[in-house]
Amino acid sequence: MNDVDQPALAIRGLYKTYGSQVSVDRVDLDVPRGSFFGLVGPNGAGKTTLLSMAVGLLRPDAGTSVVLGADVWSDGLRAKTQLGVLPDGLAMPEFLTGREVLTFLGRLRGLDPTVVDARAQELLEVMDLLEAERTLVVDYSTGMRKKIGLATALLHDPGVLVLDEPFEAVDPVSALMLKRILVRLVAQGRSVVLSSHVMALVEELCDAVAVMSDGRIVASGPLAQVRGEGTLEEAFVALIDPLRGGAEGLSWLET
Ligand SMILES: Nc1ncnc2c1ncn2[C@@H]1O[C@H](COP(=O)(O)OP(=O)(O)OP(=O)(O)O)[C@@H](O)[C@H]1O
Fold this sequence. Notes:
The chain is an alpha/beta fold. 36% of the residues lie in helices and 24% in strands. It contains nine helices and ten strands. The chain has helices at 47-54, 76-81, 98-108, 113-126, 142-154, 172-187, 199-205, 223-227, 232-244; strands spanning 9-18, 21-31, 36-40, 62-67, 70-71, 83-86, 160-164, 191-195, 208-213, 216-222. The strands form two sheets. A six-stranded mixed sheet has the order 6-7-8-3-9-10, sandwiched between helices. Strands 2-1-4-5 form a four-stranded antiparallel sheet. Strand 4 (62-67) and strand 5 (70-71) form a beta hairpin. It is globular and about 55 Å long. The protein starts with 8 loop residues before the first strand and ends in an 11-residue tail after the last helix. Adenosine-5'-triphosphate binds next to helix 1. Pfam families: ABC_tran. Residues 9-239 form the ABC transporter domain.
């Protein structure tokens, strides 16, 4: 298959255990090229573990992940050139300013210094981080850290973006700006995969979605198909609740 015909992300049999616990249980998933793909699931479902393996940050016990035709382990450089990643708990060079982080990572990725400077300026502007020009990352708020992480994911203009909870702790104005950027990237043919707990956001942005529970994909496909007649939240609860057996609530709150 030509690279142009390859899915953005082709995951086959990804499997990860921690001790006796199976965190990701032989997951197969295709993210079509040019799609805005949402990965949802309850806490501990395995989303972060799956995405970390899919982008080559965590070595799976079994399975493969291929980004636009490049295997993230056997062809890592080619795969990672095409990938922009916002991982969970991103480690940052803490004692640099936002602009220094972008300059450092841009040069590390081999981008032309003038391109790095221009993109860093634009990214700091759209992420509303220019006012914190002199602040070191170590002193950033949670939302600011998320935004500089997103900026580093966008810096080299990758074909596929994989974002773990990108909107968590981000203020509404920055979130709107970010949504517009992501929508524009997809409109231009790039692919975005994001995980989120916010169903309304996934519904608003994504054209395809996968629901994960207990390490497995329990539904996936076009948003309209997974959502059915109701909302995504209703479909999510209907899928997850029977698997979990439901909860009775707090006994001492019963009247
Ligand atoms: N490093 C680790 N060591 C041991 N167990 C782990 C580790 N990382 C993840 N797990 C376990 O794997 C399971 C899946 O975790 P993961 O973080 O992938 O879930 P998640 O769907 O991203 O959850 P959340 O929505 O709460 O972020 C959980 O039961 C978790 O405790």
